[in-house]
């Protein structure tokens, strides 16, 4: 008897799932012989006329923008920040640009390239979005960039920083609006480290593309200046225990250590750095942006205070463009914004300005891209402008973790490098002739000799 | 490769092994008696850590957290066993798969409640910082973890081999039908073991939370390590859990240092090898 | 008879779909078909042989990477892509099969888990295979690049594969497979070579998973380590259990359900993973035959006009054993009594 009841419950649940699934939007179109995605511009047929944003006074037709981020999975917190940063801009600015309401469709890729691709498909083919912003992870970024390029839908990738996307493997229509390349911030850092007097450095970086590229940038300029990298340690993503590496560092006894980590690894690294006594030693720590980003700093304590890192964004930067954003974010969400939030906010600013310039005519993709490329934006991270390869030229800051009056930690800039491009001071063509930074190629030694 | 390096690495290996032992001992006990491969063990660990985190944050008292977490997870284990596992008692594969489902649910609920940020447990002042061991500084907390593991290990051995309850469990491992025939309430024993194993997992969560960090995905990671430990050491064997923890701890610490490109192989290759050559593990018997 | 009608109807619907639904839904259904093939491959071994694998994702990935590597890095044509895909799959299945063939039940589960993880670890680190960024630019063979043409290709391949698997389960190999699930002891005493049987079915199952992997690579135009991750393997098992283990149609249904849940339910419900977990748990507890099993029960009950319920449905997941409240397992090996106990 009970069995029957439970079986019915189960059947009903599954039916419900099915109903939700089948009731999903799916146009009832005749299949034609034409090939979708064979390089044709423009999207699937009828434009949808969905409701406009509540509370906006704009009168034109809504512009639909797809926003893909990882709001579930291991990077959920960062993905959430991306969403919050983007949404905040529109909330503060009437949810419209060029007199057209902006309708953002949020999709979660769960950190999986497959799911990301499916969501991108849904956004373009079902919802007819005219622009896709995001995602977070580089491998999801590569997956959807290819598809969106085929469909002729522009893609603003404001977070994923895989170097080659705006260097050797560019895809048409993918622009890093508000974004960066992994090595962009570490190039100046290498020079800076040398100028601080460090000569022997050990690097310990996350063993995947982002970590390798960031590290490569640092090693390249540091060795160019004359410094020596005595050892390069690579820890896998998701390293539980940094004790091993701490031992190796102590053994090598360098002047300083450069480290770039992400997510939980950053938290564990900083904690180990302290508890193994390295914080109190003579060995300096120089971090990449994601080692001490606000999204992680929120959850750290005294062990992070005073630590130095480099970044394209510093929430403690004492300029109106930054502080207005920080305060607004804090008021809306009760937390200080991370770089995920800041870059998404910048992307929104950028989009709005470009739209204003083309009078909201987003269907004219060429004009949109032109407007985006020629725009100069004052973002929370400082002034930005796209270079010829669709990556921003922007400020880079040397930052120090300090405690605010309200006892929260944040990154305050102590030095600023203006107008840093993804190629640092190298000639772009010469730079591109060298391979992309990887585990095997870190730019050791002095250029222009490749390899 | 200096002596200092070797010594610190050894301590790293031992402290990680200590943590693994907490987790693996519960895991192996549950399998030994109930033949259930509790794939929700990682999720129990994570939830334990989170509960401790919240308790400590709310009350400022570390000891309360240390108490609350195992208790909370033990209750979760009790519910799982009573409500879910009991109905499919004796069917090995469904039991395992059911624990997978439970793991999904717990992990997702944890994400809902505690969010996706990586979190660490705030240690009380006397546990923080480094201890000067002469040749290097080593985190004080990890030293204490090792001490705690030894203490708990000894306690477990005593319970297992010298108490009546332990005798029942050992008999049950050998022959379930027999002890049921002898009048022992086997259902209660099962529930008890499952709850105890879950309690250990919760405890491991608190300890791990102070050493590593808690975030979505940590449950799967630590589960894979525990699996490796009990497979190598032998499912159902407590001494096996000790040996397995040591082997995995050392393989991980030294593997990472000496051959970082092979970091997953150092874990899974031995595990696969043992499964093929000696499926019952080094000390597991049947 | 019923089965054939249902099958014919399903294929009929399958053919009609692109005329009724739009490009997006057809794409989603194509993915569903690929997953269905993948799930069926797991069921071949698990449902019929009692050998549930937690590492099929690794073999799926082998197929994908075989194709991907040639397409993306080695600039080869379709022929070479397919060849490498097949080779990668078969070699990996053979090696893993040899490793796993002497284990059973829970130990089998764990070996395959470890195997899947090894594959994952390998592709994540291998720069030749794109490491965690994967390989891009895997173009479909020109004749099938349109979304609906590719859909039909997948439909055809999946249908043929399903039929092939149906044939296999009825063949002598298939029957010894089922005997394997019922009682290994008996089979051994009858003189069958257990290990070899398991090996054959492992490779066969792997073959179909590899084909699914290749189809997947062409579908998404890229491949990444996510294909080999534990989540993919786990998802496959989920599909099989939900749909109905031991039936070839069950995994197909399970695959579509999971796929719809992931891609569409996730838009409406943030905690859809919890729902999935709950459904999974409930299925295992109350409907071990999955949807198809439950469906069959309902059908059978409907056909019976009152009267006693038919013979109790044996749990397709389990080896036959006496219904003791706490099933015992003797430590003695082959001293088999009249009852069937597993070694």
Q: What is the averaged pLDDT score of chain C? A: 80
Strand content of chain B: under 5%
Number of separate helices of chain C: 13
Largest interface: A-C, 56 and 55 residues
Instruction: Give the helix tally of chain B.
Output: 11
Q: Quick one: how many beta strands of chain C?
A: 0
Unreliable parts of chain B: none
Low-confidence stretches of chain C: 319-343
Q: What's the architecture of chain C, going by CATH?
A: Orthogonal Bundle
Q: Which structural category fits the helices and strands of chain B?
A: mainly alpha
Radius of gyration of chain B, in Å, reads 19 Å
Helix content of chain B: over 70%
Summary, kept brief:
With 286 residues, chain B is an all-alpha fold.
Task: Please provide a written account of the structure.
The complex is a heterotrimer of chains A (451), B (286) and C (343). In chain A, the strands form 2 sheets. In chain A, strands 7, 8, 9, 10, 11, 12, 13, 14 and 15 form a 9-stranded mixed beta sheet that branches. In chain A, strands 2-3-1-4-5-6 form a 6-stranded mixed beta sheet. In chain A, strand 7 (200-206), helix 6 (209-225) and strand 8 form a beta-alpha-beta unit. Chain A has 2 domains: 57-182 and 319-393, Response regulator (Rossmann fold); 186-317 and 395-433, Response regulator (Rossmann fold). Chain A is of the alpha/beta class. Chain A contains 13 helices and 15 strands. Chain A is globular, with a radius of gyration of 23 Å. Chain B is an all-alpha fold and 286 residues long. Chain B contains 11 helices and 2 strands. In chain B, strand 1 and strand 2 form a beta hairpin. In chain B, helix 9 (218-233) packs across helix 10 (238-258). Chain C is mostly helical. At the A-C interface, helix 1, helix 3 and helix 4 of A face helix 1, helix 2, helix 11, helix 12 and helix 13 of C.
Task: Quickly list its features.
heterotrimer, A: 451 residues, Rossmann fold, six-stranded mixed beta sheet, 13 helices, 15 strands, B: 286 residues, two-stranded antiparallel ribbon, 11 helices, 74% helix
How are the SSEs placed, and which strands pair?
The complex is a heterotrimer of chains A (451), B (286) and C (343).
Chain A lengths: L1 H21 L40 E7 L6 H17 L3 E2 L2 E9 L4 H14 L4 E3 L4 H14 L3 E2 L17 E2 L10 H10 L4 E7 L2 H17 L2 E8 L7 H10 L3 E5 L2 H13 L8 E4 L6 H4 L10 E4 L8 H14 L5 H19 L7 H10 L1 E4 L2 E5 L5 E12 L5 E12 L7 H6 L18
Parallel strand pairs in A: 1-3, 1-4, 4-5, 5-6, 7-8, 7-9, 9-10, 10-11
Antiparallel strand pairs in A: 2-3, 11-14, 12-13, 13-14, 14-15
Helix pairs in contact in A: 2-11, 3-4, 5-6, 11-12
Chain B lengths: L2 H32 L6 H19 L2 H23 L7 H23 L15 E3 L4 E3 H23 L1 H11 L1 H6 L4 H26 L6 H16 L4 H21 L6 H13 L9
Antiparallel strand pairs in B: 1-2
Chain C lengths: L1 H19 L2 H27 L6 H17 L5 H23 L4 H21 L21 H24 L1 H11 L1 H6 L4 H27 L9 H14 L5 H20 L3 H15 L3 H14 L40
Helix pairs in contact in C: 1-6, 2-6, 2-9, 2-10, 2-11, 3-4, 3-5, 3-9, 4-9, 6-7, 7-9, 10-11, 10-13, 11-13
